[in-house]
Amino acid sequence: MQSFFIAAALVLCLLILLSLYRGVFGPTVFDRIIGAGFIGTKTIILLLLMGFIFNRIDMFIDVALAYSILNFIGTLVVSKYFIRKGVK
After folding, report:
1. pTM of the entire predicted model
2. What are the structural domain ranges in the chain?
3. pLDDT by residue (tens digit) across 54-77?
4. From CA 43, how far away is CA 36, in angstroms rounded?
């Protein structure tokens, strides 16, 4: 079962790299923000998979919850900043 979680984590890392490409080379600022949000979401899932791999899911859930709150607030702040600035 642990090999399944490791394989899923590797696939998730590949998806993070694809989202990173979208975040860096997105045609608009909002595409870059969405790419960064996807990276944050996939990182949360990757943290939970690491918890299953190391058999310490309780600790990794706390870290994932804190990271998800920071990711959400960061995305809102950056989006609000670019909306007020009028960037397209």
Report:
1. 0.83
2. 2-85
3. 998 999 999 999 999 999 999 999
4. 10
